[in-house]
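Handout, page 2. Input:
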Amino acid sequence: MRTMENFEILAPCHFGLEAVLKREIYDLGYEISRVEDGHVAFWGDPEAIAMANVHLRCAERVLLVVGRFQATTFEELFQGILALPWEKYIPFDGRFWVTKATSVKSKLFSGPDIQSVTKKAMVRRMQRTYDVDLFPEDGADYPVRLFLYKDQVTVTLDTTGVPLHKRGYRTMTSKAPLSETLASALLMLTPWRGDRILLDPFCGSGTFLIEAAMMAANIAPGARREFTAEKWTNLLDPTIWQEVKEDAIACEDTTVDVNLSGFDLDPDMVKIARINAKQAGVDHMIHFQQRDAGATRHPGKYGFIVTNPPYGERIADQKDLPELYGKLQTVMQQLPTWSVYVITSYEDAQKYIGRKADRNRKIYNGMIKTYFYQYPGPKPPRKKP
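Output:
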């Protein structure tokens, strides 16, 4: 068993959020090797794979880099895959397949063909190594993911399995839910911290507030779930996973004092948000209430609004958007010392909010181009010593 070898580890994220993920990885103590659109790569030992899966809030997956090479033809792809030391990663009985291949600005662009050629080359390499024609493939899963960018092929093994945004607490959602990883990243783009007020007037299924509560309570998002690489006993000592999860749980503090509120006009969404918060173990930390966004009130000063209002996924809903975004203008008038952060794909959002955002960040939510409009309020006065 190899215990202390350093690996290159690749963490995909939403386009536009690489800097947030980079900071998370630095905070875990690892050295960044490269940053590309939608990916951050870093160096780490076997423990780093467990640490990244358990602790990272913004990453979609944690991938182990097997190799990189150039390929402009399928023959070059075949030979490149064949040259990689698959036997170092996949045991004789390992179940391996190419789960996804993505291509950007590359001569090879057909995902299914890239997957097929890759699998054939892997089989050829393993046949030579183990001197057999057929493999039992009844052991642990070793899913392969490929990324082609400008003809550079990055070949990885997926250590995560079910994507990291599936924390396990969200059993029910709204029509267009924000992913947990995106919600976390957006919170990290604001100056909000656990000791500050946070309110979401369009809370839906509660994702922003639940992620905020988990951050405030230091709840690691992956501490209570399983990962594909936990069964890779040929590469990773199983006790590493147990120790990383146990250490993470030992650092939680759900008694921390917070001020988190969520409003929604739909009473069913308020119920769903409460159920999700309970599943996450933070229901006692968040106040959910049925209330129209325009009636948002709060006695506190210098709080934060971070929200994902509806943005008219259906044409029929779009006629309601001017009035709906006008409610945010009302909220900002009612709470003039607050900071407001809005993610939306609605192009006219600023027009009806009534103010051009101080800052505007473009973020891709899947294939949807969204804007993160930022209206920072005045800084609170310094507390007297």
